[in-house]
Every structure is written in structure tokens, then in C-alpha cells.
């Protein structure tokens, strides 16, 4: 299949997964808004639903880009504050592995994404079929790193076998890409991650790594689109067809 044809199919899958996620939204909810192209479809559809009077929600975004989009489609935004918890966060993923373990941060928003995921009662992942993998690690694992610590973080990741590269700004290369917090982004090419929990502990012990892109034990469900089919994946349960899925928050 030609790659633009494939891209078109994947894009349609992203849109279908995003549309299905609206079924999780209830009137009055506080919603976390993810980042990336799949989450952007959800934000647009949520804005459409609000303008159509289907329900009212308030939201906080996981990136400046998602915040700008949310404002432009009329989603009321709340600032971070103590005690704020989200009923639902809807976000994309770069890889979805066994037990809904995720790699996230391909868009560089991993820190805010993990903050909101942790402050949420229900993290719902929406994804196209290319994201579902039998083992994490083919997608390079992103890290957000304080600039001063970069050389030592690169050494430590190389020692762990992660073949690290500093992510470049797509528009201003060779300048490095910066996160919304002004930190650097490192991509680690481990190729396969047989023990993500152990790696997460090792990464947390390296000074200068603000956050890593392993999201373990955070997602409650994932809606994965495969052509016309939409499948809901949950922890400890067989995947089910989304059409007949009733366990909503
Ligand atoms: C951004 C992310 C995104 O959720 C991830 O990169 C998926 O993006 P897309 O929906 O464009 O495939 O983690 O930091």
C-alpha cells in the first residue's frame, strides 16, 4: 500500500477513536486534554459538542498547542490549582503495550501529560492501530532533561544501552527541540523494553531527567481503531467491541 494511502487510513482511525471517546464525557466533568494529532481530533470534536449544547465541561490542556486549540474551539479552560482532579483525561500514545503500559512523549509533552494523567480518575487513551504492540520499545523512549544535566544524562542512558539522541527542532534544526518548560528532549533507542518497570526505576534515579515517557499503571482504558472496527482495551479484561461497551465513568 502506498504510504500516503496508509497515512490516510491511519488518520481516519485516529478520527474514529477520538469520536468514540466522546461517549466517555459526561455533563459537568473536568477533562484533561491530551497532546498530539489524535488528541487534537478529540479537542475539536469536544468543542463541536459543547457548541451544540450536548454538555458542559471545563478542561486543562497538556501542552501549549492543545491549549491554543482548545481555546479556539470554545472549551473553557481552568488553570492548575491545588486539589484539582480530573474526571477524565483523553490522550494519545506512541505505543500501547501489555497491561496498557504506554510510551508517550513523541510530541514532547510527556511531563504535562504525566502530571494530568496522575491527577485524573480515568485516563482514556485513543489511538490508531499502529500503536498497539506486543512489547514496548520499538518507538524511541522520550525523556525531558534539564539542559545543564545533558552530558551526564547522555552518558547514563548510553550505559543502560539506550543509544540516546537529542531531539532537534523540526523548523529550526540544528537547534534542539525544547519542551513547553524550556527543557531538552532526548530520544532513547532501546529497541525493546522487556522490563519497563525496572527501566522506569533506573531512569527516575538519574539526576536531571525531569520525566520519562513510560506511563505504567496510569491508563484505565484504550480505544484502538482498526479500519472500521473500534476496540476497547482494559486492564485484566479481554478487548471488547466499542459499540457494545457500557462501562463508562
Ligand atoms: C505527545 C504524545 C502523543 O500522545 C503521542 O505522540 C501520539 O501522537 P499522535 O496522536 O499524533 O500519534 O505523547 O507528547
In short:
Helices cover 29% and strands 23% of the residues.
Overall description:
With 249 residues, the chain is an alpha/beta fold. The chain folds into 2 domains: 3-129 and 216-228, Rossmann fold, CATH 3.40.50; 141-206, 2-Layer Sandwich (Alpha-Beta Plaits), CATH 3.30.70. Helix content is 29%, strand content 23%. It is built from 6 helices and 14 strands. It has helices at 3-21, 37-51, 64-72, 110-118, 150-159, 196-204; strands at residues 30-33, 58-61, 88-91, 95-96, 102-103, 123-128, 141-145, 164-166, 184-188, 209-212, 214-215, 219-226, 229-234, 240-241. The chain has a 7-stranded mixed β-sheet, sandwiched between helices. β1 (30-33), α2 (37-51) and β2 (58-61) form a beta-alpha-beta unit. α1 packs across α2. The mean pLDDT is 96. The structure holds ribulose-5-phosphate.
Describe the SSE topology.
Layout: H1 3-21, E1 30-33, H2 37-51, E2 58-61, H3 64-72, E3 88-91, E4 95-96, E5 102-103, H4 110-118, E6 123-128, E7 141-145, H5 150-159, E8 164-166, E9 184-188, H6 196-204, E10 209-212, E11 214-215, E12 219-226, E13 229-234, E14 240-241
Parallel strand pairs: 1-2, 1-3, 3-6, 6-12
Antiparallel strand pairs: 4-5, 5-11, 7-9, 7-10, 8-9, 12-13, 13-14
Bound molecules: ribulose-5-phosphate.
